[in-house]
């Protein structure tokens, strides 16, 4: 399955064996849903069917893994119904809520992309960034970093502007980096229009080379912002709220997991056959 075990190993190098297996299985499910929704609903422009499917699928993942679910009707539903109780076992309520919310946004985000396809509308840049955070299942990244390291973001910091901004930057670096490498598959093979390269060409004109340069600049800016938050704003915040030594260590370990996640993901982008290697401008 498109070298998913390699991806799991790269983004979660510190994970225990059992957690690494679960991360791998969760990634397999994410790719499976994405590919299934594209073939079943996007290619046929089935707006109504896509929304019905996405909303039904959301009922299979609830913060309470014991919550009743419908009888699965296909492999994607069976996969999520089987995966979620095992993935959620032993996790904190915060982790379960975050992962459940991330999957809900991922699943319904695909239906929002379908809206743009049916309307033949390339989204504007601001709309696209928000949409891409959803459709990349970016919120799962923070949860996977917690699984890999055994450390969660301390509750004292969770709702602060600094951590909110940190998570947004983390997701953007993940998601935007996918846009260039997936361009050929999405545009030429799948008929997709929800792609940063198309968005940038629509806004600025020019060819793919120019779009790629702009996208690279955006990603670099988000990396710098992520680093600034980690190196400057988080220590300031920790001092302001008098974060305990154990909480400070928990935050430090989670950040290390997030950094490993990003470096592993970009290495995978460069080598996976799913995207046939690096972007080549046209």
Task: Give a description of the structure.
The structure is a single chain. This protein has 282 residues and is mainly alpha-helical. Helices cover 74% and strands 0% of the residues. It has 13 helices and no strands. Helix 5 packs across helix 6 and helix 7 crosses helix 13. The longest helix is centred in the last third of the chain and has 33 residues. The C terminus is likely disordered.
Which runs of at least 5 residues are low in confidence (pLDDT < 50)?
277-282
**How far apart are the termini?**
29 Å
Shape: globular
Portion in strands: under 5%
Roughly how much helix do the residues carry, as a percent range? over 70%
Q: Average the pLDDT over all residues and give the rounded result.
A: 92
Largest β-sheet summary? none
Helical stretch tally: 13
- Cα-based radius of gyration, to the nearest Å: 19 Å
The H/E string reads: HHHHHHHHHHHHH
Number of strands: 0
Features:
282 residues, 0% strand, disordered C terminus, mainly alpha
Quick summary of this structure?
This protein is 74% helix and 0% strand. It is mostly helical and 282 residues long. Helix 1 runs antiparallel to helix 13 (245-271).
Strand-helix topology:
Layout (H helix, E strand, L loop, with lengths): L3 H8 L5 H26 L4 H12 L16 H14 L4 H26 L6 H11 L3 H11 L5 H4 L2 H21 L1 H7 L6 H9 L3 H33 L4 H27 L11
Helix pairs in contact: 1-2, 1-13, 2-4, 2-5, 3-5, 5-6, 5-7, 7-13, 9-12, 9-13, 11-12
């Amino acid at each position: 399955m498109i070298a998913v075990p390699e991806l799991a190993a790269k983004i979660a190098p510190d994970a225990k064996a059992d957690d690494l297996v679960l991360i791998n299985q969760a990634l397999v499910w994410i790719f499976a849903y994405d590919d299934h929704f594209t073939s079943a609903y996007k290619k046929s422009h089935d707006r109504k069917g896509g929304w019905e499917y996405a909303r039904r699928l959301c009922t299979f993942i609830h913060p309470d893994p014991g919550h009743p679910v419908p009888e699965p009707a296909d492999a994607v539903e069976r996969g999520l119904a089987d995966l979620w109780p095992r993935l959620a076992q032993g996790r904190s309520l915060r982790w379960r809520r975050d992962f459940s919310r991330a999957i809900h946004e991922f699943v319904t985000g695909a239906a929002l992309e379908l809206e743009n396809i049916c309307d033949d509308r390339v989204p504007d840049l601001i709309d696209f960034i928000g949409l891409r955070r959803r459709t990349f299942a970016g919120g799962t990244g923070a949860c996977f970093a917690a699984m890999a390291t055994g450390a969660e973001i301390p509750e004292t910091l969770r709702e602060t502007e600094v951590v909110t901004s940190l998570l947004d930057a983390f997701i953007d670096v993940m998601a935007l980096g996918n846009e260039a490498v997936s361009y050929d598959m999405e545009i030429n093979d799948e008929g997709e229009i929800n792609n940063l390269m198309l968005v940038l060409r629509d806004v600025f004109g020019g060819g793919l080379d120019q779009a790629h340069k702009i996208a690279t600049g955006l990603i670099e800016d988000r990396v710098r912002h992520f680093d600034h938050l980690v190196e400057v704003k988080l220590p300031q915040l920790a001092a302001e709220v008098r974060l305990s030594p154990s909480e400070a260590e928990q935050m430090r370990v989670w950040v290390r997991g997030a950094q490993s996640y990003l470096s592993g993901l970009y290495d995978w982008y460069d080598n996976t056959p799913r995207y046939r290697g690096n972007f080549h401008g046209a």
